[in-house]
């Protein structure tokens, strides 16, 4: 696999921590010190589909391709206004692609899993050019009366176009079934047969400290394992492009791996936690700012609800 183009799209509305004090008892100081987040982008008159389309078009253009050149679209998305069809189907039609497409729902680690699936499609020759997209609106999973979760998230979309190449060097995916630490329950239509209390919808539930602990320990251990298994050291890696959940989680992983600040770029301070979109948003930002060069070794690593982790080692 080789990345040949990236693109991203963010909502235009910038929401500061101070703006959130209008909705609940919180403060800029609390949010900054606990999370490192200063602002986030939240959708107003845009839809998630708008962002997904723009991010996809940007990535396809950066790759020097047309939508009809794509052989597959794989989209990471936790949730959106539609249960079906999948978001990738809507994007496919809107951008003028004709290839098959599907969504994966693996929460914040979704983009890394989608890239790993893309790699296997390329290796087996099932596809030549794949759009790997992540589009997320986690601000709409929170109950906007709950300060514990609502301050953490932002919306966004980003994509990478990949083709066959020799830049993929390995991946490690893990799932430790621990479904109570971070979950949301969908609203389904009641049937006349259901027993009351069995099916309950609920906005996001998060045991913050447990998620924090699992994120730092699991992600650090998985990256370490991946690097060792491929004969690399932390110092060989130009960038660790981590899921942007919380600055303290990122710093915790950096500390464990004994990496430098330069190796751990961040966008969480600007965009908050954009779920699976955070990794490709950061990747696209590094590309657009000319901070990453062809051949640079990168690790992309995501973690989240499941509890699931995914880490991918490749050259840009
Ligand atoms: N503003 C002000 N106070 C808040 C608050 C907010 N937005 N959210 C929670 N609090 C309060 C709580 O009510 C609690 O008050 P109490 O002590 O009176 O009961 C207190 O702050 C909790 O503080 P603390 O225990 O110091 O929080 P923390 O250091 O664990 O930080 C998180 C909380 C959520 C920031 C942290 O646990 C975290 O980042 N977890 C991981 C979350 C995450 O990344 N999820 C997505 C993973 S993909």
Spell out the key features of this protein.
10 helices, binds coenzyme A, globular, 4-stranded mixed beta sheet, alpha/beta, 316 residues, Peroxisomal Thiolase, Chain A, domain 1, 2 domains
Explain briefly what this protein structure is:
The chain has 316 residues and is α/β, with parallel strands linked by helices. It has helices at 17-20, 28-35, 48-62, 87-95, 110-123, 147-150, 208-229, 247-257, 268-271, 278-288, and strands spanning 2-9, 14-16, 39-41, 72-76, 101-104, 129-136, 156-163, 168-175, 182-185, 202-206, 239-242, 297-304, 308-315.
Task: Describe what this molecule looks like in 3D.
This protein is α/β, with parallel strands linked by helices and 316 residues long. The protein folds into two domains: 165 residues, 3-Layer(aba) Sandwich (Peroxisomal Thiolase, Chain A, domain 1), CATH 3.40.47; 146 residues, 3-Layer(aba) Sandwich (Peroxisomal Thiolase, Chain A, domain 1). 32% of the residues lie in helices and 24% in strands. The protein has ten helices and 13 strands. The strands form four sheets. Strands 1-7-6-4-5 form a five-stranded mixed sheet, with helices on both faces. A four-stranded mixed sheet has the order 8-13-12-11, sandwiched between helices. The protein has a two-stranded antiparallel ribbon with strand order 2-3. Helix 3 packs across helix 4 and helix 7 runs parallel beside helix 8. It is globular. The structure holds coenzyme A (COA).
